[in-house]
Write a structure and sequence with these properties.
By secondary structure, the protein is of the alpha/beta class. Helices cover about 30% and strands about 20% of the residues. It is built from seven helices and nine strands. The protein has a five-stranded parallel beta sheet, with helices on both faces. The longest helix has 19 residues. The chain is elongated, with a radius of gyration of 22 Å. The two termini are about 40 Å apart. The structure holds ligand 9WO. Ligand 9WO binds next to β5.
């Protein structure tokens, strides 16, 4: 998959995308990441990318012509055209189903906004999908873009190596994970559930499944809605 990111802060993407799964996916050629500095498409000598909102109000709005130019340049850099995603608190909430859907695209173009947002005409005419990673406001869409990239990268065939599959983890079946423990079995009197030390595999599986169901019921009953 190719991912293009439009941002005023391309340097913010160094670091998080250079370690672990994303680094491996990039090194293996599964993820081809391209950063684009929106400011390079400003047209005046001050390289202005934002302006005051029509109708008044706080702060500044990113200019539609600059964003459109940046997007067109990014789209023209490769084929096929990417599915364009604007990261904003007004978007649909990112979840496992949406991550899987996005992971099936050959190319994504992510737009990270700053200030108080982007001119709505850009969203209306240039964006395929507005996505939120949660109900909170940040200072920009860069971290949400990185979150989306990491979530999607885990679903690219081969990205997790041979022995792991994202299907085996939480949300594939709509339940939270069971608690996990490792050695020592007794640390300061903090013990591990007896069944896990029993070697009785059927009992262990039953316990894990009970724990997952009970945790989901207590912590995230919304995930069980639609079932019994
Ligand atoms: C700030 C603000 C202040 C006064 C009046 C209106 C306002 N809107 C915003 C605002 O939404 N700013 C955003 C900052 C504009 C887009 C980039 N920023 C952003 C993205 N903050 N949080 C996100 C985000 C994106 C995806 N998922 C969660 C949060």
């Amino acid at each position: 998959m190719r991912v293009d990111v439009l941002t005023l802060f391309p340097e913010a993407f160094a670091g998080p995308l250079d370690v672990s799964i994303i680094k491996r996916a990039r090194d293996a050629g599964l993820l081809d990441l391209h950063l684009h500095d929106i400011r390079e498409h400003a047209t005046d000598r001050h390289r202005t990318v934002d302006d005051q909102p029509f109708g008044g109000g706080h702060g500044m709005v990113m200019k539609v012509n600059v964003l459109d130019a940046a997007l067109q340049a990014a789209q023209a850099a490769a084929e096929p055209a990417g599915h364009v995603i604007y990261l904003s608190p007004q978007g649909e909430l990112l979840n496992d189903a949406l991550v899987r859907e996005l992971a099936a695209h050959p190319r994504l173009v992510l737009v990270s906004g700053r200030y108080e947002g982007v001119d709505e005409r850009f969203v209306e005419h240039c964006v395929d999908r507005e996505v939120s990673i949660g109900d909170y406001i940040l200072t920009g869409g860069e971290l949400p873009a990185m979150v989306l990239i990491e979530a999607v990268a885990r679903h690219l065939p081969g990205a997790l190596g041979d022995d792991a599959s994202p299907r085996e983890e939480s949300f594939a079946d709509g339940l939270l994970e069971h608690p996990q423990y490792t050695r020592p079995a007794d640390y300061r009197g903090w013990t591990v559930p007896e069944v896990l030390l029993s070697g009785h595999h059927a009992e262990i599986e039953k316990w894990k499944q009970e724990q997952r169901r009970e945790r989901t019921r207590r912590r995230r009953p919304d995930l069980l809605d639609g079932e019994r």
